[in-house]
Each structure stands twice: as C-alpha cells, then as structure tokens.
Design a protein that fits this description.
Layout: H1 2-5, E1 14-17, E2 24-29, H2 36-52, E3 58-59, E4 75-78, H3 85-103
Antiparallel strand pairs: 1-2, 2-4, 3-4
C-alpha cells in the first residue's frame, strides 16, 4: 500500500489517512477551517475540479446523526492493481495542483 500512497503523501494542505492493507485511503485537510461545513465545501471543490480534469474521486459520506465519533471530512481515494505508477503520479499531481488553487 505504501507504494500506492507514496505519490499522495506530498500534497500540500492535505494529509493521507487510512490503513496500509486497504485499497482505499482518505485525504483530509491538514488544518480544519474550524467549521465542518466549510471543510466539506473545500473538499467538494477539490473533488469537482479533479473530476473536470479526468480524476475520479468522491467525498467520503458519513451518517452524521448516527456516528458516535464523526470522522473529519475527507476525500476517498481508491487504488486498484490495474492502475499504473504513471496514472497514480498523474492523479497525485492533479490533486496537488487543484488543492493549491482551492486551499490558498
């Protein structure tokens, strides 16, 4: 998993969260705005702009009223064995560029 996550570790403004055995991981804001709704809007804008550039991502969904400990908002990223290193690098570069625009 570390090889798959590696290109995503250096995205400024976002941090990688997840289990090393899982094909899915999450990108959370390094620093919250202090408002969950604003955090969700920022992450959704990153997802939308990445989709416009051909990178499929999704905002993680939680049962907000049912969760005992509601996780911070995050972008869910899934890596498959069919993705090449070049595709992962392209995805990480795209996410990084979009995050720089949205978060700065």
């Amino acid at each position: 998993m570390l090889v798959c996550v590696f290109p995503f570790l250096s995205i400024s403004g976002l941090k990688v969260v997840g289990e090393s055995i899982s094909p899915a991981f999450h990108l959370q804001l390094e620093e919250s705005t202090g408002c969950r709704e604003r955090d969700v809007k920022l992450l959704q804008e990153i997802v939308t702009q990445c989709m416009d550039r051909g990178i499929a991502l999704t905002l993680a969904r939680y049962l907000e009223k049912e969760e005992k400990y509601l996780p911070p908002p995050s972008i869910r990223v899934v890596v498959t064995v069919e993705q090449t290193e070049e595709e992962l690098e392209k995805a990480a570069t795209t996410i990084s560029k979009v995050a720089q625009t949205v978060l700065l």
